[in-house]
UniProtKB/TrEMBL annotation:
The modification 4-aspartylphosphate is found at D59. GO terms for biological process: phosphorelay signal transduction system; regulation of DNA-templated transcription. SUPFAM superfamilies: C-terminal effector domain of the bipartite response regulators, CheY-like. Residues 233-298 form the HTH luxR-type domain. Residues 10-126 form the Response regulatory domain. It comes from Paraburkholderia sprentiae WSM5005. Keywords: DNA-binding, Phosphoprotein. It holds the Pfam family Response_reg. Gene3D superfamilies: 3.40.50.2300, Winged helix-like DNA-binding domain superfamily/Winged helix DNA-binding domain. This is Response regulator transcription factor. The keyword DNA-binding applies. Transmembrane segments: none annotated. GO terms for molecular function: DNA binding. The lineage of its organism: Bacteria, Pseudomonadati, Pseudomonadota, Betaproteobacteria, Burkholderiales.
Length: 304
């Protein structure tokens, strides 16, 4: 859906109290914002997905899906995850404030609403968010595949090229593969750690960590490795049958025998038999060693 005015920031207000909606709508509209409203969590999720706003003012306590759960669901979706959420609450107890931050909120304001405070906080978080948007746009224009990762390994945002390269590797909540998260934690402790190699269903990727973003996020660059070893290359290099090559390929991707059986339309027992043959031909005893040999394979054309 097209934005009503691309030059105006869009703020979504979510509150089940009509008087609060009226006050905030009037305040923001007079300040030059495009204002969207929702009276419950379900409506907020629908509006945010159809027309992602630049910022969300979210009431913490609402009937049905409360503000905390609404925020959690927004942060589970890659499309709405980057949107800054400011909680509005009459609850000032530490546990409720922490609950808001744990759900993914960036700030909170207390009721009754103080207009000057609201406007300052909105302007501050929009300014920070705009810097991220501008960074992404510059990377998009340069054709870079970049992923911004938070302190717990969650994907904050990623450029379209990175999303295309990682398609199928992210889980339902848009999180990075566990092995890649482990590498990142190790790289944070020891900066000299080298790049990470990730084998997807279509290509081999090289993940590097060039620098930290302006807001403390880790920026990962995703590059495609030339000559990535597909099943055909594995079959030729290790003298495998087509089925054995398929099994080794998916082992290198990180799939279990049951996953491989489902993908290739065979029983787990048959997949295990093929894997035993692969081990024998490669002269290895473990999945890890077999996967490493597949990942380290350089096809003949890349050495010319």
């Amino acid at each position: 859906m097209l934005r009503p005015d691309p030059l105006r920031d869009v703020v979504l207000i979510v509150d089940d109290a009509p008087e609060n909606l009226s006050i905030l709508h009037s305040l923001l509209d007079k300040s030059g914002y495009t204002v969207l409203v929702a009276t419950d969590g379900a409506g907020a999720l629908d509006r945010a997905r159809r027309l992602p706003p630049d910022l969300i003012l979210l009431d913490a306590l609402m009937p049905g899906i409360d503000g905390f759960e609404t925020c959690r669901r927004l942060k589970e979706d890659l499309e709405t995850r980057p949107i800054p959420v400011i909680f509005m609450t009459g609850l000032t107890e530490t546990e409720h404030v922490l609950q808001g931050f744990q759900a993914g909120g960036v700030d909170y304001i207390t009721k009754p609403i103080r207009p000057a405070e609201v406007m300052v906080r909105i302007a501050s978080h929009l300014r920070n968010s705009r810097q991220v948007v501008q960074t992404r746009a510059a990377m998009d224009a340069a054709g870079q595949a970049v992923v911004a990762v938070g302190p717990s390994g969650e994907v904050l945002w990623l450029t379209p090229l990175a999303q295309a390269r990682l398609r199928g590797s992210l889980d339902a909540q848009g999180r990075l593969p566990a092995a890649l998260c482990s590498w990142l934690q190790e790289a944070l402790r020891a900066p000299e750690v080298g790049p990470f190699e990730l084998l997807t269903a279509t290509e081999q990727l090289i993940v590097s960590r060039p620098r930290r973003g302006a807001h403390g996020e880790e920026l990962l660059v995703i590059q495609s490795k030339p000559g990535s070893p597909g099943p055909a290359a594995l079959m030729q290099a290790f003298r495998l049958t087509p089925r054995e090559a398929d099994v080794l390929y998916w082992v290198a991707v990180g799939k279990t025998n049951r996953d491989i059986a489902d993908i290739l339309g065979m029983s787990p027992r048959t997949a295990n038999k093929h894997l035993e043959h692969v081990f024998a031909k490669l002269g290895v005893e473990t999945r890890t060693t077999a996967a490493r040999m597949a990942l380290n394979l350089v096809t003949p054309q890349t050495t010319q």
